[in-house]
Amino acid sequence: MSTPSPSARPALLFDLDGTLVDSVYQHVLSWREALESEGIELAVWRIHRRIGMSGGLFLKALERELGHDLGSGAAERLGAAHAKGVLARMNQIRPLPGAKELLATLTSMGVKWAIATSGAEKTARPTLSMLSIPPDTPVITRDQVAYAKPNPDLFLAASERLGVLPGDCFVVGDSIWDMLAARRAGAMGIGLLSGGYGKEELQETGPYRVYDDPADLLAHLDELGIRDAR
Amino acid sequence: MSTPSPSARPALLFDLDGTLVDSVYQHVLSWREALESEGIELAVWRIHRRIGMSGGLFLKALERELGHDLGSGAAERLGAAHAKGVLARMNQIRPLPGAKELLATLTSMGVKWAIATSGAEKTARPTLSMLSIPPDTPVITRDQVAYAKPNPDLFLAASERLGVLPGDCFVVGDSIWDMLAARRAGAMGIGLLSGGYGKEELQETGPYRVYDDPADLLAHLDELGIRDAR
Predict the structure, then answer these.
(1) Under a CB-based contact definition with an 8 Å cutoff, are residues B52 and B15 in contact?
(2) How far is CA A223 from the centre of its chain?
(3) Phi, psi (deg, nearest 5) at residue B145
(4) Cα A46 to Cα A53: distance, rounded to the nearest angstrom
(5) What is the pLDDT of residues A58-73, one digit of tens each?
(6) Which of B22, B25, B47, B90 to mutate to test the interface with A (most CBs of A within 10 A)?
(7) Which secondary-structure segment (H or E) carries A87?
(8) ipTM for the complex shown
(9) Is beta strand B21-22 parallel, antiparallel or unpaired with respect to B94-95?
(10) 3-state secondary structure of B209
């Protein structure tokens, strides 16, 4: 457990899909397609509620619901089919309103920030390039940690990369998995509705605040106690 | 206002997209594509929350958010582009779990039911054909009434077609627009989570019950007071 320090400069750790980039629905439909290619019928809304959690846990939950194991090789094939679907839909994906402006504002204010995503390097890179972020932006992807969300590993690695204690970080995310991982990391969660979760669903996981999207968060940075110290 | 009668045989009025057919996310992405073709950038989650309401009201809300009128012909072009997008995605659309079984069970129990959708005939027909329903099933589409949801017109027309008072009907839908239209029709709303709304969002509109999907509703028909009188 990290001990919060009396700091005027909290850092922000951002989830990527649904938080900075409007890509959740494309991820959801790519999963549907991938699952069907393995003979698994799963309704789209149920997939939506699992987006952002570790792929391994998603498959474990799926096996529980199906009542049998998926068999060897299925996880790799599903992952590859999902990535293929996302890359095919990449031309439909846009940055969320205010995302670029929010990140640029934080940078110009001297506030530290990083990106931590349950997504794989392969699908995260093309969406990161839409955000016009500096090439030295700290980015933690699924490939770099042992466990993805709701484990705290991604956010702990991101805070360490920034040299800021987790207790001095806000975790900004659109899914309940981000909010749960934030709590386990000892950070404060900030929920965004831009991934399609209902407000009350996010609020049940105990975030510090819930905003519509990055533009709404940018307009309310003062509520986080983030000051322009220039 | 209809006066409920002491009836052991309530009727069911079903919404289509997100209620019987797993098509909401395809509708959402088709709207995004259509809006962008008119130069309008709107985040996907905001479109999701408008799905199922009247297209005219959707555009009016959009004009309010954009701060200007869309201009003449835009509504027709948007409608056509959206329909084209849905038809192009039709091969990804599936019946929701339990939908066919639920409708077949109601028919075999002698319970009256109908379908009432804010969708246009053009996009509704191909999805209806996935449900294996009798050709004489009463179906009310957008084209047949003056105002779509959340106005009560669609459900009032459906109950009239069945010869059942609205107060003796359950309206089954996945969106808050269904639940609002149900209340205005004087019918009881049954919410389904299969369209991707959060449970609490649906519950706030005052439905009688909320279930996961058609399969879950089928397993709990007794809770609606629907008895097999064969």
Answers:
(1) yes
(2) 21
(3) -130, 165
(4) 13
(5) 888 888 888 888 888 9
(6) B25
(7) helix A74-89
(8) 0.92
(9) antiparallel
(10) strand
From the CA atom positions of chain B, what is the Rg in Å?
Answer: 17
| pLDDT average, residue stretch B182-191 | 97
Residues 6+ apart with CB under 8 A from A39: none
The answer to whether the CB atoms of B43 and A96 lie below 8 A apart is yes
B48 in reach of chain A (CB within 8 A): yes
Residue B42: how many other CB atoms lie within 10 Å:
18
Packing angle of the helix pair B121-128, B74-88 (nearest 10 deg): 20
Give per-residue pLDDT as tens, A105-148: 999 999 999 999 998 888 999 999 999 999 999 999 988 999 99
The verdict on a CB contact (< 8 Å) between B22 and A28 is: no
Chain A contact for B216, CB < 8 A? no
What whole-number distance in Å separates Cα of residue A82 and Cα of residue B48? 22
Peptide bond into A10 cis (omega under 30): no
Q: Does A24 touch chain B (CB under 8 A)?
A: yes
pTM of the model: 0.93
Q: Which of B168, B169, B165, B139 is nearest to B154 (CA)?
A: B139
- The answer to whether B130 and B95 are in contact (CB under 8 A) is yes
- Alpha-carbon distance of B188 to B182, in angstroms, equals 6
Between CA A164 and CA B170 the distance in angstroms is: 55
Helical H segments across B38-175, by residue range: 44-48, 55-66, 74-88, 99-109, 121-128, 153-162
Whether residue B159 lies within 8 A of chain A, CB to CB, comes out as no
DSSP single-letter state for residue B173: E
pLDDT of B71: 82
Establish, for the pair of chains A and B, how many residue pairs have beta carbons separated by less than 8 Å.
71
> Can you tell me the mean pLDDT for A81-98?
96
Instruction: Encode pLDDT of A136-150 as tens digits.
Output: 999 999 889 999 999
**Contact between A25 and B24 using a beta-carbon 8 Å cutoff:** no
**What is the spatial distance between Cα B137 and Cα A220, in angstroms, rounded to a whole number?**
52
Cβ contact A128:A17 at 8 Å: no
Helix (H, G, I), strand (E, B) or coil at A11: strand
Kind and range of the H or E run holding B201: helix B199-203
